[in-house]
């Protein structure tokens, strides 16, 4: 790894699936080209590769086909495909016998770890990028690289990069005024905190939300805490199904990005109005049916401990010792209510990636639209008038590029487009000196 002056062509901030896919795209581009390899490095704050580890619940499945892995849609011959992984593990035939497009999340995690292990020379784990700025003594037009401050257990380093690819992931969302603690959790930290809690402290638990995370956690708690009362606070009248039928699924096709990006405001609005239910506040059919069946069987036995508070939202939380008092508002009768539990899990979703904190003072060189959102080029590069270095986003571009902005569905294509852009711009920059 280079620290100090020598600049990388690109530094990736975060090493989740998006930047892992970028590392693969850069490597495969170079393998097919005569020019020098792009110098790339990636910094990941976790101590080892991990993809939403605290939500790796047993038996949960992927929400995209395994064909939408890190590389296949860009390069079906890639040695980093999910099929190549299965082949190397000696499991290809057994996987095929399952006749499913949707591996478990645990198996996909193993695939991602396997792919990440091919890049250990380019990734530093336990390394948090704290700031991106212009190098001291330079201006936006004169700076030919950006300066990144990276914190590790050993101290702070600086790294220079001509381009950065920010891919720091979704940001857990809690209701306003509610803080997390050892008994009030967000779904993103579920297994970690569950593992640290004594079973005796989990006699009455509640889960808030009606998305995939909420439904999976409700099922997990009901399954794993046989004596506990499990309450699900559902803002709708009941869980709604995630539409993954073929026509609707086309919103995740690579071609839909162009139609969204180059469409009018009305086009983009139509995408959201008609197809938000492919991803947000929705649940897979199988999980919905499983939960319904559990609740039905309990009713038959006259011993219901799984209950659903429908059309209900959480308004606030008060902690009194080990007890959590939850304030509820119900749309059924308009009344406020209260619930007392030992542990409360907010599966209340995520906000989009927000790079402003990392960009600090550089943020003023990034153009925004009339609604204050970043202007982003088709190649995912921020519009930065007067700044010659490139800042690319993987995530946080739903307003410009549509639903797949932070999803795996289009990761292979998206990171291929970013790799192409970085390499073509480098060639353009170097051309005058080659001709001189
Ligand atoms: P991701 O969040 O995975 O990675 C970002 C990385 O950046 C993290 O490892 C983080 O530690 C690191 N980081 C953050 N700040 C940093 C800093 N300052 N310095 C260094 N490192 C930093 N989508 C889909 O298409 N199909 C699916 O099946 C699923 N399943 C799914 C399950 C669950 C539980 C969730 C919450 C989400 C999904 N998703 C999904 C959507 C999800 O966004 C997607 O699967 C990927 O995680 C996106 O990958 P990224 O690399 O962009 O972000
Ligand atoms: P989500 O889909 O955004 O759902 C959040 C839920 O919380 C919504 O039902 C929302 O209701 C509700 N909510 C918010 N504030 C509330 C409040 N104060 N009281 C009651 N309810 C409240 O979030 P998610 O379920 O975490 O899913 C996020 C992403 O991760 C999706 O892309 C999903 O597909 C993915 N995911 C995938 C898997 C998997 O691959 N197996 C597992 C989990 C998650 P409103 O909409 O009414 O605000």
Describe the 3D structure.
- With 436 residues, the protein is an alpha/beta fold.
- The protein contains 13 helices and 19 strands.
- It has a 5-stranded parallel β-sheet with strand order 4-3-2-8-19, covered by helices on one side. It has a 5-stranded parallel β-sheet with strand order 10-17-11-12-13.
- Helix 1 (17-31) links the parallel strand 2 and strand 3.
- The two termini are 31 Å apart.
- It binds dihydroflavine-adenine dinucleotide (FDA) and NADP nicotinamide-adenine-dinucleotide phosphate.
- Dihydroflavine-adenine dinucleotide is lined by residues 13-14, 16-19, 43-46, 51-52, 55, 62-64, 128-129, 167-170, 213, 394-395, 406-409.
- Belongs to the lysine N(6)-hydroxylase/L-ornithine N(5)-oxygenase family.
CATH class identity of the largest domain? Alpha Beta
Strand content: 15-25%
Q: Quick check: average pLDDT?
A: 95
Give the helix/strand class.
alpha/beta
Number of domains: 3
Main sheet characteristics: 5 strands, parallel
Alpha-carbon distance between the termini? 31 Å
Using the alpha-carbon principal axes, give the shape.
globular
State the share of residues found in helices, binned by percent.
25-40%
CATH superfamily of the largest domain: FAD/NAD(P)-binding domain
Number of strands: 19
What is the number of helical segments per DSSP (H or I, 4+ residues)?
A: 13
Return Rg in Å. 23 Å
CATH architecture of the largest domain: 3-Layer(bba) Sandwich
User: Stretches where pLDDT falls below 50 for ≥5 residues?
Assistant: none
Are any ligands bound, and if so which?
dihydroflavine-adenine dinucleotide, NADP nicotinamide-adenine-dinucleotide phosphate
The CATH topology of the largest domain is what? FAD/NAD(P)-binding domain
Numbering strands along the chain, what is their spatial order in the largest sheet?
4-3-2-8-19
């Amino acid at each position: 790894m280079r620290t100090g002056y020598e600049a990388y062509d690109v530094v990736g901030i975060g090493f989740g699936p998006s930047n892992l896919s970028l590392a693969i795209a850069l490597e495969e581009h170079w393998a097919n080209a005569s020019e020098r390899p792009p110098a790339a490095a990636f910094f990941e704050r976790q101590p080892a590769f991990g993809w939403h580890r605290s939500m790796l619940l047993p038996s949960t499945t992927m929400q995209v086909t395994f064909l939408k892995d890190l590389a296949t849609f860009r390069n079906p011959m890639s040695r980093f495909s999910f099929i190549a992984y299965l082949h190397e593990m000696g499991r290809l035939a057994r996987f095929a016998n399952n006749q499913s497009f949707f591996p478990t999340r645990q198996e996909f995690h193993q695939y991602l770890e396997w792919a990440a292990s091919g890049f250990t020379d380019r990734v530093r784990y336990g390394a948090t990028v704290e700031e991106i700025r212009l190098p001291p003594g330079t201006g936006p037009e004169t700076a030919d690289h950006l300066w990144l401050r990276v914190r590790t257990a050993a101290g702070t380093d600086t790294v220079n990069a001509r381009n950065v690819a920010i891919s720091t992931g979704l940001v857990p969302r809690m209701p306003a005024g509610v803080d997390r603690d050892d008994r009030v959790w967000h779904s993103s930290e579920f297994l970690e905190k569950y593992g640290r809690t004594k079973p005796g402290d989990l006699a009455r638990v509640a889960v808030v939300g009606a998305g995939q995370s909420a439904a999976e956690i409700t099922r997990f708690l009901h399954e794993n805490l046989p004596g506990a009362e499990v309450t699900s606070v559902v803002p709708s009248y009941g869980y709604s199904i995630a539409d993954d039928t073929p026509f609707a699924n086309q919103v995740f096709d690579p071609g839909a990005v162009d139609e969204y990006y180059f469409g009018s405001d009305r086009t983009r609005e139509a995408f959201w109005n008609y197809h938000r239910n492919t991803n947000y506040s929705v649940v897979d059919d199988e999980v919905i049916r499983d939960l319904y069946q559990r609740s039905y069987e309990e009713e038959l036995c006259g011993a219901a401990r799984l209950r659903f508070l429908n059309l209900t939202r959480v308004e606030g939380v008060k902690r009194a010792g080990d007890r959590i008092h939850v304030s509820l508002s119900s749309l059924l009768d308009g009344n406020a209510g209260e619930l007392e539990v030992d542990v409360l899990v907010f599966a209340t979703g995520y906000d989009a990636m927000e790079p402003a904190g990392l960009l600090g003072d550089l943020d003023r060189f990034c153009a925004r639209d009339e609604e204050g959102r970043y202007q982003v080029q088709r190649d995912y590069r921020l519009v930065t008038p007067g700044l010659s270095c490139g800042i690319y986003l993987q995530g946080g571009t739903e307003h410009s590029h549509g639903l797949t902005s932070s999803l795996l569905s289009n990761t292979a294509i998206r990171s291929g487009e970013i790799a192409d852009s970085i390499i073509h711009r480098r060639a353009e920059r170097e051309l005058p000196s080659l001709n001189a």
